[in-house]
Specification:
The chain is of the alpha+beta class. The chain has helices at about 25-40, 75-85, 140-150, 195-210, 215-225, and strands at about 5-10, 45-50, 55-65, 90-95, 105-115, 130, 150-155, 170-180, 185-190, 240-245.
């Protein structure tokens, strides 16, 4: 059967992340249960571009699987969206080459982090933004963003609980910050991300904007390669996996 590539969005608020975990509600588990239902009880494994943590959202997560039923792609999309919970939506399904892999063929990922920068909380945005009521100098933040672009060892900016044993060198093509009314939008695009990397970097950038951290402090963080020097990890609520880019194997 033809391998299928699926692009999905989801509200991660009430999920324990993307990847299947025992006795936990996850996005992958819901997807594979839907596929199982369509296949009349037969389990089919899926492979995603990567995992997202508890509470993290996605606008462009990608997974692939090889069905055992010959169903038009448009009908697959309708079937998925009829079965899946309302927090998950299948945006696009397309046929891909037999050697396509959602994780290993990804050449770039884009994450976005939304900060609500106002004096008052907004209960309707609490699951999709990080509330930060302090004054922020966006120009200072934008200058600091440039320090994260390029190829660096991001040891200080990933969780000490990371399972990565090898190099923590990654390349970020874009790190930007812009104010849109009462929200501050951070965009990070790169060839790979470490565990909690986006949430730690944005936390540092907010501290720069608040005047608590200098550009020299960021230089020191890179040099020390020590997670303890880079401050706290921001909550998952403001984080979105926005887009995954692939080599053209379709």
């Amino acid at each position: 059967m033809q391998k299928l590539k699926c692009t999905i969005s989801y509200d991660g608020t009430n999920f324990s992340g993307y990847q299947i975990q025992p006795n936990k509600r996850t996005v992958q588990a819901e997807i594979e249960q839907a596929i199982k239902q369509i296949h009349k009880g037969k389990h089919i494994r899926t492979y995603a571009s990567g995992r997202t943590d508890t509470g993290v959202h996605a606008r462009g997560q990608v997974f692939h699987f090889t069905p055992e039923l010959d169903i038009p792609t448009a009908n697959w999309k309708k079937a998925f969206n009829a079965i899946l919970p309302k927090e998950i939506y299948v945006k696009k399904i397309e046929k891909v080459s037999p050697d396509f892999h959602a994780q290993f063929d990804a050449i770039e990922k884009e994450y976005r982090y939304f900060v609500l920068n106002s004096k008052e909380r907004d209960v309707f945005r609490r699951n999709f933004t990080y509330f930060y009521p302090f004054n922020i100098d966006v120009a200072k933040v934008q200058a600091a963003c440039k320090m994260f672009e390029g190829t660096h060892d991001f040891t200080s900016f990933c969780s000490a609980r990371t399972t990565v044993k090898g190099s923590k060198v990654r390349t970020l093509y874009e790190v930007s910050c812009n104010r849109i009314e009462d929200e501050i939008l951070f965009i990070l695009r790169g060839n790979g991300f470490l565990y909690n990397m986006v949430r730690i970097i944005v936390g540092v950038l907010l501290e720069v904007g608040s005047g608590n951290i200098s550009l020299h402090d960021i230089e020191t963080m890179f040099l020390k390669k020590d997670r303890s020097v880079a401050g706290k990890t921001l909550p998952s609520s403001g984080l979105f996996l926005w887009e995954v880019t692939y080599q053209n194997k379709s």
